[in-house]
Amino acid sequence: MEKSKSLHIVMFPWLAMGHFIPFFRLSKLLALKGHKISFISTPRNLSKLPKIPPNLSSQITLISFSLPTVPNLPSLAESSMDITHNQQQPLKHALDLLQPQLASFLQSSKPDWIIYDYASHWLPSVAAQLGISRAFFAVFTAACLSFMGSPSTLIGGGDDGDNARSTAEDFTKIPNWVPFESNLAYRLHEITKYIERTDEDNFGPPDTVRFGVTIQQSDVVIVRSSTEFEPDWFNLLGELYEKPVIPRVNSVVYVAMGTEVHLSKEELSELAIGLEKSGLPFIWVLKNSPGTGESELEMLPNGFKERVKGRGFLYLGWVPQVKILSQESIGGFLTHCGWNSIIEALGLGRVLIMLPMLNDQGLNARLLNEKKVGLEIPRNELDGWFTSEAVAESVRLAVVEESGKVLRETAKAMEGYFGDFGKNDGYVDKFVSQLVDYRK
Ligand SMILES: O=c1ccn([C@@H]2O[C@H](COP(=O)(O)OP(=O)(O)O[C@H]3O[C@H](CO)[C@@H](O)[C@H](O)[C@H]3O)[C@@H](O)[C@H]2O)c(=O)[nH]1
């Protein structure tokens, strides 16, 4: 198995403890997966971070930039903790002046990704010009982000006049883009404090614009919350942002049936409705059907794509499967049980939801079922028929329900067998030496 490429990822949180901590935790999780992290902040902020665990010290580099001095900001202040509520804007002024240092760091180090916060709204375009992939890591709930609205609402002006908010009262109303019952709105006293700006606060754009531009110019938005906890809000957020919104818990189901299996229209439909009923986010790889010339995407039930918008991502054609499976947010793999796919998934400790169709796949499924690294979707033994309920229940059990915990843990333990590249290297060495001996 090819090891997924080790990435160089730059992290740049907003200057606040409530932001460094989740950014640092995410850095550790990514470093544990073998990726290199450059964590950028200012000297006093970096000194407040927890110690980097010894096993990750070679993976995470702390990069210190001095915070430029600006009017109205106390000299030693480097984070929101060090200042009053009214000094937030000067702190953002200082942050904005870090732009040239960030730009030259990115230019010289050429990372694969940069993960940033809402305040550095100038950073996505700097990264884009350098060809660096961009993720906004939002340390807020999907409900709060949905309440704030789409990037164009946040940026305001132009084409979004109807949704523009100008007075504090506007924030006490449930937004008209929320399509379901909700009581999510501010109380007047809460918002008055938030939108209050003092005279010296007029440097740089307001937070709404910082958020809007950051979201608009990112490739993906990572949300530090869970889709099981707030499924409706995650759905809405995907629609508002029109880009992948990745929850930070492992609940995304990756669905792929290899290169040879072609499902019938009826099977595709049952699978689609099952994924919809599961309520979980999913990434589904679809193929062209050589027989009919129709693609699987065209064969999906009417209205399905619209109903799962923002939660279900459908790809037609070839995708980098190992790269997708290695994403932190993947919670399970709905698979046809092709042996390559199984090795890849278990090498990354992903629990399996099995739907075998051809060749060795049925036997693979029996073996894997016995090993308790996943479960088979219940079928009619004679004709193989499965229902959307069976799909939804199996997916939920494997990925999120308490009763599936043992399957998830057993699958995770398989990383030791299939994901140990050192061991794999050892096998290859042994194999090569056997080849040499045999030739003698
Ligand atoms: O969009 C795609 C689709 C596939 N893959 C890769 O292609 C390979 C597919 O292999 P596998 O999962 O084994 O699926 P199939 O090619 O469908 O499987 C055939 O080959 C297997 C190995 O012999 C058998 O177990 C199966 O029964 C047989 O159908 C894997 O490495 C995937 O990661 C991608 O990277 N991107």
Automatic annotation (TrEMBL):
Keyword terms of this UniProt record: Membrane, Transferase, Transmembrane, Transmembrane helix
Pfam families assigned to the protein according to its UniProt record, in alphabetical order: UDPGT
Alphabetized GO MF terms: UDP-glucosyltransferase activity
Chain segments annotated as transmembrane: 6-26
InterPro entries, A to Z: UDP-glycosyltransf_plant (IPR050481), UDP_glucos_trans (IPR002213)
Signal peptide stretch: none
Family that this chain belongs to: Belongs to the UDP-glycosyltransferase family.
Descriptive protein name: Glycosyltransferase
Organism: Gossypium mustelinum
